[in-house]
Specification:
The complex is a heterodimer of chains A (about 220) and B (about 210). Chain A is built from 9 helices and no strands. By secondary structure, chain A is an all-alpha fold. Chain A has one domain: MetI-like fold (Orthogonal Bundle), CATH 1.10.3720.10. Chain A starts with 8 loop residues before the first helix and ends in an 8-residue tail after the last helix. By secondary structure, chain B is mostly helical. Chain B has 9 helices and no strands. The chains are: A mainly alpha (about 220), B mainly alpha (about 210). At the A-B interface, helix 3, helix 4, helix 7, helix 8 and helix 9 of A face helix 3, helix 4, helix 7, helix 8 and helix 9 of B.
Chain lengths: ~220, ~210
Amino acid sequence: MFGSNDPLDFIDHIRENQDQFWELFSEHMSLVLYATLIGLVIAIPLAILTSRIKVLDKPMTLIANTGQAIPSLAVLALALPLFGIGFKPALFALSLLAILPIFLNTLVGINSVDAAVVDAARGMGTSDIQLLWQVQLPLAMPFLFAGVQTAVVLSIGGATLAAYIGAGGFGDWILQGLAVRNFPILLAGAVPVAVLAMIAEIVLGWVRRLVVPKGLTVS
Amino acid sequence: MQYILDNPGRVFELTIEHLQLVFSAILIAALIGIPLGILISRVKWLALPVLNISGVLYTVPSLAFFAILIPYTGIGKTTAITALAVYSLLAIVRNTAAGMNEVPASVVDAARGMGMGQFQRLRLVELPLAIPYIFAGIRLATVAGIGIGAIAAVIGGGGLGRLIFDGIRTIDSNRIVAGALMCIILALLAEYGFSKLALLLRPDMRVKAERG
């Protein structure tokens, strides 16, 4: 019923439509990169602020945890009636989704810095800013990195769904393949996305281990 | 909102369909995942490869996974439940293994000292102590499953996702909002209802789930 019987025919579809392949790739990756960057820019200051003002800690953690339970599709779908169709509404939704893991991980990272270490730094006369830059943030780095890794993988999946609200990306081929019941097109969209997500997870894991000193690794 | 008030029957029907999808997947995942979790907590060299492979598999976006399954399982509920079960499996295996590993060695020793065999220890000591972790894994899988289940509507899995995708196709904000809101409500109910229920049944069940 799906036109072709050989699952590997999708490779031919990619080969015959290379220009479109790279266009979808760049649409997909722009969504992921911008969403992660926006997520970083908003989440890190927010996490620092929350770690400084203790009364914020509980409500912010609760809000972020609750937010993480909300399905990506629901967030993307709600962006449509609010902001319409296209790249920007999708980017808005994906950025919201990317903020949460980065915020939560950075906050946990800063809060898990040993009180004795903070005390020692204070005793050496560090200012607030120095304490943050030279002690707390470097020690929170492994957590922050884990948050970014989660955000990137989450965004790759979210960007696939974004095709439904007209933002392009590999989801376009999946959508098209389902609509005209054509296997090669369907898989030409699905397989690259799956590979992309797995590569992102593995490579970012390596980078984390390379960048973070051995003594600081978290599982 | 308006759509839910105007079509309570339809929304209810789709909600039930959605929950059926999620819970059948969780049931399958639990039947495979709990024994697998126990196995990898016993056979240590299996733990790392099983957790790593399932961790990488978990990153595959659900829409892509549904699409890749279609050649083998076709369009419809089978594909939806298969994919959901695979995603749920990771959370359940990981948390079962964590729970088993958290049982203090002294407790296991004491049980052995009382003359309990492998299976008695497992049934009477280790599993009851690991239950809070297993439960946390199931809660996590349910919350994630409700979100992924919504996506299953594009491959004929039914459920609340139909409201969302039909709404997108016909540019009907009412239906989109109704579907999205219902999914969010279900996910939050699962997230908080589950843990409240667990605390009511077993006040000592307060553990943190290990996210995938």
